[in-house]
Amino acid sequence: MRTIAVPVDDEIYVKAEKRATALDTSVQAVVASYLRDWATEGEHTDAARQTLKARFAQRDWQFSVGAPDNRTQRNARR
Questions:
Q1: Rounded distance, CA 71 to CA 69, Å?
Q2: Is residue 54 predicted with pLDDT exceeding 80?
Q3: CB neighbour list of residue 20: distance below 8 Å, 6 or more residues apart
Q4: Where is 16: in which H helix or E strand?
């Protein structure tokens, strides 16, 4: 594990420390979490892109949002 030093304005650090304390964490933990998420962000995007490509490549792929309507709901619209 590496340790890094990042210069931060005193006023910003005090505000960050107060916010971190209110969230029951530390500034160091927040920064480490942010860097971990930021560094792996592309991996998640690439995986999602591959999933979408595979879905669109299927001939019978249908787009839908939410649960399909039941018979009563479909008939009520006629």
A1: 7
A2: yes
A3: 26, 27, 29, 30
A4: helix 10-22
Longest dimension (CA), the chain: 66
What pTM value is reported for the model? 0.56
Structure tokens at 78: 């006629």
What's the CA gap between 78 and 71, in Å, rounded?
Answer: 11
| 60 Ramachandran zone, left/alpha/beta (phi>0; psi -120 to 50) | alpha
Residues 6+ positions from 6 with CB-CB distance below 8 Å: 31
Does 15 score more than 80 pLDDT?
yes
